[in-house]
């Protein structure tokens, strides 16, 4: 009996390490499989247009929720040193990125055209316009006369101003335009200028949060020609030719990200804040709730673009001397990489 117990005891002692070794081996195998899966992911670089903000929540949500990995992609989101990312995408220094319809139009009609193309609209309609503190009494473009406009220093702004003022029979020559060194709307209108061009989805919402009453004149409300896609996701012709499936997979994941942001704005903001903790959360949440109504708006699917919008706004830019030649709108964008409806 004693011998039997000793044998049993020794056998038990010998078996324990075997179980432990087996457990460690299984864990190592799992880690190895995970590393193998990670190494199988295709790397994609995505360049932002500016600081991370609520326009980008669908991208950050796709990253945080694993939608890109589900499509076999390892996406690196890059914040650029400059807001002009079009040349970077054109040269292949980024695979995809955030730009604007007007910049794509300028790039494709330049003397030395850039081979970039829009593949998705982040927001369906232009939410920008001219804003002023209510005490400035700027209710319509007619009220721009005798006022000081704070400019970003672009010809596009001047064309916007001239167009909307002419619509209201106002004299453009009676407007003073001051190029600004800082583009903070609140600082500028408190100190040096009467009004500025803003995007309501951020500065307009910030004014609401700060209890800073403004009058806002949306561009497309004055002239429908000024409704355009801003911002858009772009890529280059080489990507389209050589890696079309990567674009398709990226946009499938991005679509899921934006659809999630539309339905869950507060959680989408949390995904953004993980990468941009300095962002004002109160403004971001309210901004996201506003954009949740704008991302898809009246389109059948997120990201979809219409030829009419590209032709109309491109024609307006050409008529106003902003382009060296007319835009071939059909070549400037495509919906082919978006998920099926």
From TrEMBL:
Ranges of residues in domain SsuA/THI5-like: 53-268
Signal sequence range: none
TM helices/strands, residue ranges: none
Any one GO biological process: thiamine biosynthetic process
Residue ranges of the region described as Disordered: 16-38
Composition skew (Basic and acidic residues), residue ranges: 17-38
Pfam families: NMT1
Alphabetized PANTHER family for the sequence: 4-AMINO-5-HYDROXYMETHYL-2-METHYLPYRIMIDINE PHOSPHATE SYNTHASE THI11-RELATED (PTHR31528), THIAMINE BIOSYNTHESIS PROTEIN HI_0357-RELATED (PTHR31528:SF3)
Name of the protein in its database record: ABC-type nitrate/sulfonate/bicarbonate transport system, substrate-binding protein
